[in-house]
Task: inverse folding
């Protein structure tokens, strides 16, 4: 029987576990940036359309319409990559799905409904620009924004559960006493992930879109249309970025509380320490960080608000239960570093707006902005690497190991290669389509 | 009992996926064989315009079936996915390229680029339904045992029954698509296209019927269990209904009554799936009954609650979409929207008040989320921080910014 293969039983015979994990990771890396647009872009488009309804100014309508084209293209790519993930969940990790589907599946089932709403109203919104009254058209857009958020709520509830499993009991390898609502939404690990990801959605969307127009400005495309198209997403990202730092700190404190081993991996803390320090940069070997810049006692203070607090080290678990420390650590530092820089960039913008009443004038700001988009995507992926690789070797934290979850089917390298090739085509084609859309001439009069 | 209800949900989803998305796949097939020149272009464009607004909504039925299945019958999904990993991966690959083709179609009108996109679209429109159909054949012929990759990775889906069900899935989709597209052409008054798709519907209907009939001896030989199920009891009843509805559809198409034909074609397909489900009873996979395969009670109840609640929101939304599509609300000839009453532009006016409030929220949020260590305080802290972000957005007023700065225009060029 499938469901008896659990943490204490023998791992599945699968010589390509690493490839299976990379396949999963690759698929997430393509899907998650697209998802950010599902979370944040509808709200930005609707904001601009709402300005049109308020003022009747055609420039807003033109902008909203052009952004809608981008929205559909990215949505289609999000749908496709998301479907692949749904397949992979069963194709790559059948033991995980068959053992715990009854606990976490509800989240995905509800997610399915939110995708329905999203797909239906995207159809109406996109094809209704010239057919519906302006007000009806605007209203048709609202469910898209709601559904984009709802969908991510559901997936993240599943991820929160995998990191902090509760709401069921295991008896002889089968789950009993399942309470799926509590498992998914009564879970203390869910909220920081949700808020952090939601803000990340605004940062990624905002910086990428604004960055595209910043490049345009550096090349001399800078009319009223472009200024609005830059200022709206930039402001959305700039108000999210400083808050993201505070929320990230909250996430780290939750990790310290619920997954002390992950925290130890984030900081490369080999041994349980009282008044533990933080190391910036450096490389983890043999239980300590070499070449790093040490800040004494900071870890204890940040994680437990006391410079004397004791922080659990990696030595508290068997060597086989330690996640790949350097991967997690570098990813974490990358995220925090980028997050800090982006928050600073945002403060610069807000200060200039406050003191001078407008957009910054120096080209340096626009050069930084052009980099901010890709940087926020890097932070996003680094964040998920922190969470997911930091959870290894567990797929369900302290309950099921990843090597017990994996499929026993052969041929993983073949499907990995095929999928990787397909993603290359997908990403290339979407980039091509976006360039095409950007190159379309403006309607006259704007 | 509960598991039967959930199974019915999943089957209903499967029926809708077949009837709706199946037709979208079929339309892809017709694009592939549309022929050259302006007439071929017209056929391809007609197929594209009919599907573009609805394909995503139709596609979601697959996600629905998948998620309900892995929540309520996790062990079945685990066994299927590991043994049928090849056809399911190929179906997924087809889905990537089909979705991609939609994403790209908005971006170009250049003929040779459109040709590449159309061809990708058409090939993946055949690959995906064939592979999904072959997977159904594998289940029907009992080739998927319970366990992690316990079945044969090749013969489980390369066998007479799977070939049959794969071909059936492709031809049924083509049939549905031709009927729907003929109906759309009739609504648009495109007589040429109507005639073209009427012919195609008749042709595909005959082929699909022939494949189904040829299937009976194949099943008798290769899938005894399913054959017995389909030739007795409910299974037989479903086969008869399907046959009659299929013939009825051909008659309706012949006499150009396409709106009714749409419905009877859907009935024919529904009956095939119902018949399969009836024939499969009482086990889902060999030796695994529906009852044993089902997730714990609390999960089944949660799924039912979620589906019913979701359905209440979804039904009117889907109704709206299809009303707009079927009554021509999206057609090029539809009434253009009235312009909004052009008011005097209202710029500015948010400024300093919002900024002060935002600062207050930021400080409160910092205290509650960062300084305090208490779940409830954290909740309020997050709300305060999000309020601070929203208020700051208001204070910045990005849609008006261009008025405020208006840097001296650089000569462009
Ligand atoms: C634009 C993206 C972005 C930025 C700028 C930051 N993060 Fe982040 N971070 C993410 C995007 C992200 C994420 C969306 O990728 C993750 C993955 C899982 C999650 O909930 O959010 C994440 C996870 C994550 C985790 C692990 C949570 C867990 O395992 O449950 C921690 C501790 C932090 N972040 C901390 C921070 C800090 C202290 C930041 C500030 C400087 C920061 N993040 C900026
Ligand atoms: C529910 C089933 C899931 C399974 C079985 C699963 C399993 C895995 C595994 C095995 C890896 C590879 C880790 C490694 O390379 O060491 C991974 C990576 C990842 N997962 Fe999950 N995960 C699941 C859900 C999620 C969810 C719901 C999310 C996000 C919402 C997520 C986000 C990620 C990301 C971003 C990575 C990339 C990490 C990397 O680069 O290695 N996962 N996942
Ligand atoms: C960080 C984690 C994830 C988030 C926040 C997220 C959220 C979303 C959102 C908002 C969409 C809508 C598409 C768009 O707007 O572009 C989407 C699409 C999709 N996602 Fe994800 N997702 C995540 C990970 C996953 C995982 C782990 C799975 C599968 C197991 C998944 C399955 C899907 C599916 C099937 C779709 C397509 C829905 C459709 O057909 O409309 N997603 N996701």
Result:
């Amino acid at each position: 029987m499938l469901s008896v293969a659990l943490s204490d039983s023998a791992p599945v015979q699968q010589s390509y576990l690493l490839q299976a994990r990379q396949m999963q990771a690759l698929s997430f890396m393509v899907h998650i940036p697209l998802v950010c647009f599902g979370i944040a872009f509808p709200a930005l488009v609707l904001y601009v359309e709402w300005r049109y309804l308020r003022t009747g100014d055609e420039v807003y309508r033109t902008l909203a319409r052009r952004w809608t084209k981008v929205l559909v293209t990215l949505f289609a790519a999000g749908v496709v990559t998301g479907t692949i993930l749904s397949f992979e969940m069963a194709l790559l990790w059948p033991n995980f799905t068959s053992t715990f589907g009854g606990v976490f599946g509800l989240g995905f089932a509800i997610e399915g409904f939110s995708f329905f709403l999203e797909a239906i109203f995207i159809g109406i919104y996109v094809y209704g620009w010239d057919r519906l009254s302006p007000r009806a058209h605007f209203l048709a857009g609202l469910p898209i924004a709601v559904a984009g958020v709802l969908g991510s709520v559901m997936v993240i509830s599943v991820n929160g559960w995998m990191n902090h499993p509760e709401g069921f009991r295991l008896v002889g390898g089968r789950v009993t006493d399942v309470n799926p609502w509590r498992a998914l939404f009564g879970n203390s690990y869910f909220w920081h992930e949700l808020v952090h990801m939601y803000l990340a959605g605004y940062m990624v969307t905002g910086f990428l879109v604004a960055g595209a127009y910043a490049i345009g400005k550096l090349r001399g495309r800078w009319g009223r249309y472009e200024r609005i198209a830059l200022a709206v997403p930039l402001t959305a990202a700039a108000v999210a970025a400083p808050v993201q730092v505070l929320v990230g700190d909250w996430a780290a404190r939750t990790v310290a509380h619920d997954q002390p081993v992950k925290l130890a991996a984030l900081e490369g803390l080999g041994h349980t320490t009282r008044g533990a320090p933080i190391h910036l940069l450096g490389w983890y070997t043999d239980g300590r960080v070499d070449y790093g810049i040490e800040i004494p006692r900071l870890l204890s203070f940040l994680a437990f608000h006391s410079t004397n607090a004791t922080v659990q080290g990696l030595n508290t678990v068997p060597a086989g239960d330690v996640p790949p420390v350097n991967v997690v650590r570098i990813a974490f530092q990358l995220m925090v570093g980028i997050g800090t820089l982006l928050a600073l960039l945002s403060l610069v913008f807000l200060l200039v707006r406050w003191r001078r009443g407008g957009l910054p004038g120096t080209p340096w700001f626009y050069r930084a902005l052009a980099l901010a988009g890709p940087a926020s995507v890097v932070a996003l992926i680094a964040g998920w690497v922190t969470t997911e690789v930091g959870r290894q070797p567990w797929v369900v934290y302290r309950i099921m190991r990843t090597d017990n979850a994996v499929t026993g089917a052969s041929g993983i390298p073949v499907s990995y290669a095929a999928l990787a090739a397909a993603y290359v085509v997908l990403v290339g084609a979407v980039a091509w389509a976006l360039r095409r859309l950007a190159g379309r001439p403006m309607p006259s009069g704007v | 009992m509960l598991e039967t209800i959930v199974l019915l949900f999943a089957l209903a989803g499967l029926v809708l996926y077949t009837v709706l998305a199946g037709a979208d796949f079929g339309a892809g097939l017709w694009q592939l064989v549309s022929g050259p020149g302006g007439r071929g272009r017209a056929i391809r464009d007609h197929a594209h315009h009919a599907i573009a607004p609805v394909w995503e909504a139709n596609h979601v039925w697959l996600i629905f079936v998948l998620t309900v299945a892995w929540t309520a019958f996790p062990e079945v999904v685990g066994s299927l996915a590991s043994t049928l990993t090849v056809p399911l991966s190929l179906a997924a690959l087809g889905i990537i390229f089909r979705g991609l083709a939609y994403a790209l179609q908005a971006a170009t009108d250049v003929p040779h680029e459109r040709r590449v996109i159309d061809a990708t679209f058409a090939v993946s429109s055949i690959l995906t339904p064939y592979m999904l159909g072959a997977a159904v054949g594998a289940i029907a012929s009992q080739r998927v045992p319970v366990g992690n990759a316990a079945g044969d990775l090749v013969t489980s889906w390369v066998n007479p029954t799977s070939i049959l069900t794969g071909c059936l899935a492709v031809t049924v989709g083509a049939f549905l698509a031709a009927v729907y597209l003929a109906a759309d052409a009739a609504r648009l008054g495109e007589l040429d296209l109507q005639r073209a798709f009427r012919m195609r519907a008749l042709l595909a209907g005959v082929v699909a019927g022939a494949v189904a009939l040829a299937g009976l001896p194949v099943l008798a030989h290769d899938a005894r269990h399913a054959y017995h199920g389909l030739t007795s009891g409910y299974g037989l009843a479903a086969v008869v209904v399907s046959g009659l509805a299929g013939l009825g559809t051909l008659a309706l198409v012949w006499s150009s009554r396409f709106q009714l034909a749409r419905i009877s074609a859907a009935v024919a397909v529904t009956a095939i799936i119902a018949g399969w489900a009836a024939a499969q009873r009482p086990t889902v996979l060999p030796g695994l009954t529906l009852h044993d395969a089902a997730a714990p009670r609390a999960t089944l109840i949660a799924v039912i609650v979620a589906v019913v609640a979701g359905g209440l929101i979804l039904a009117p939304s889907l109704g709206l979409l299809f009303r707009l599509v079927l009554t021509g609300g999206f057609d090029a000839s539809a009434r253009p929207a009235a312009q909004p009453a052009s008011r005097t532009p209202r710029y500015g006016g948010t400024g300093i008040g919002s900024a002060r409030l935002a600062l207050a929220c930021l400080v409160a949020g910092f205290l509650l989320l960062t300084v305090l260590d208490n779940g409830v305080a954290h909740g309020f802290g997050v709300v305060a921080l999000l309020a601070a972000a929203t208020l700051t957005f208001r204070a910045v007023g990005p849609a008006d910014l261009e008025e405020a700065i208006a840097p001296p225009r650089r000569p462009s060029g």
Remarks:
- Chain B touches chain A through 114 residues (CB under 8 Å).
